[in-house]
Amino acid sequence: xxxxxxxxxxxxxxxxxxxxxxxxxxMRRMAWLYLISRKFWQTLVGIGGIAFLILxxxxxxxxxxxxxxxxxxxxxxxxxxxxxxxxxxLASVIGIAVWSPFGETERVxxxxxxxxxxxxxxxxxxxxxxxxxxxxxxxxxxxxxxDLVPLFVRNxxxxxxxxxxxxxxxxxxxxxxxxxxxxxxxxTGLLQDMANMTxxxxxxxxSGWNILAQDLTHGHATAICLGVAIGALMVYIRDGVRxxxxxx
Length: 248
Prior knowledge:
Strand order of the largest sheet: 1-2
Helix content: 55-70%
Distance between the termini: 33 Å
Number of helices: 8
Structural class: mainly alpha
Shape: globular
Largest sheet: 2 strands, antiparallel
Strand content: under 5%
Low-confidence stretches: 1-24
């Protein structure tokens, strides 16, 4: 029986054996190779590192009653800044993980991979949001009426969507930088406006153009974030991303 070689995949189109053990590159094997090529385990380590970073960052915030600063405002500021940082880093890690160092195997594979893309992306997003969300949920509630965990999830989904759309349009090897840029602009804007903020809630009343700095009462910001995330997910599952020169 002739064996066709397609990239790194060996496929036996006329194999009448149904069990994967008779097909060295069956679906289970393909799924495993896909996760390896996408650096899945390294991604989990990266997510754990982000969670540790923001937990460590909040532990540096003073808690003594005799501190010469407004502790409520200081805590609210640190929580807000770390939330934006965590969302940006998570989206960047996911952006790096969807790129394969072996080339865009989906373009030449005889096996249909949209399901693998969907499971891989959703698993990273869910794991990242749960792990980091638990850390954020452990913070002190010092911003009345502002629920930080949904805000983190919303912003992380939007930034991940930006990465996927940029990877589809240009090159995913560069797209992971976009969340860092968005997060940096948001954080810089908050620091510049700190002198005009008198209550913790002001930290989530940013400029109207920056949807990442708006709270959940701004329906248009949430709608845009979810719309970008869902649209990017559908495009990525269908087409994948460009990670080679001249990819289609």
